[in-house]
């Protein structure tokens, strides 16, 4: 197949030219294909190891008991949901400023995966909240801001497909993604800025962790597995999208010649 089917029509001179050297879909596919099996394997091993360790071997929380074990799903899903939206905002920035051809594809495929992890975060949080607060949902600052994050993902998914011209859809969705990025610090600092039911940050890079080391290890392993799962799904979806677009373009070119 022609590797330049989706390549940019012109490479700008100057400092941004290095971006376009890595914007070739064919080059991305050559890198992604051998990496995908390894990414999938490591993500599966780490996720399963972290969850089994956390649910069957780590001690129960001294205050919340076994109900706190849901954190081995809830916390990694929350971290990945926010990191995924940050990646979406970065891809949108590259799309708007440099018209990076892979940025639009990345943003389009990050949206559904990020929304899925955010949904897992919300559902697992509701299941955790029921025994702790007596309700599946409260209009807490942290919960509400994560719900807004979920709606931002859904809005991006819908907006990117709302125009007949795909470029218009990607541009409008990119603007939404960048504007919505202001919600990320609100999620992170909501427990500090407002009086909320949601507990404060248990793990802090600067202030140390408030969790037993026997519970921290499986949580970190599970989180790494969730991150690798996110990357695996996005790379797989991007590869499939590139192949689909290449096939469609080749079929259209063949139809025009016939």
Write the layout of secondary structure elements.
Blueprint: H1 17-21, H2 25-57, H3 71-98, H4 101-133, H5 141-159, H6 166-180, H7 183-193, H8 213-257
Describe the structure.
The protein has one domain: Four Helix Bundle (Hemerythrin (Met), subunit A), CATH 1.20.120. The longest helix is centred in the C-terminal third of the chain and has 45 residues, at 213-257. It has helices at residues 17-21, 25-57, 71-98, 101-133, 141-159, 166-180, 183-193, 213-257. It is globular. The chain is an all-alpha fold and 258 residues long. Helix content is 73%, strand content 0%. It contains eight helices and no strands.
- The unreliable regions are 1-5, 7-15
State the domain count: 1
- CATH second-level architecture: Up-down Bundle
Q: What distance lies between the first and last C-alpha atoms, to the nearest angstrom?
A: 19 Å
Instruction: Assign a percent range to the helix content.
Output: over 70%
Cα Rg: 21 Å
- pLDDT averaged over residues: 85
Q: How many extended strands?
A: 0
Shape: globular
The number of distinct helices, counting runs of at least 4 residues, comes to 8
Q: How do the helices and strands follow one another from N- to C-terminus?
A: HHHHHHHH
Tell me the CATH topology: Four Helix Bundle (Hemerythrin (Met), subunit A)
Strand content: under 5%
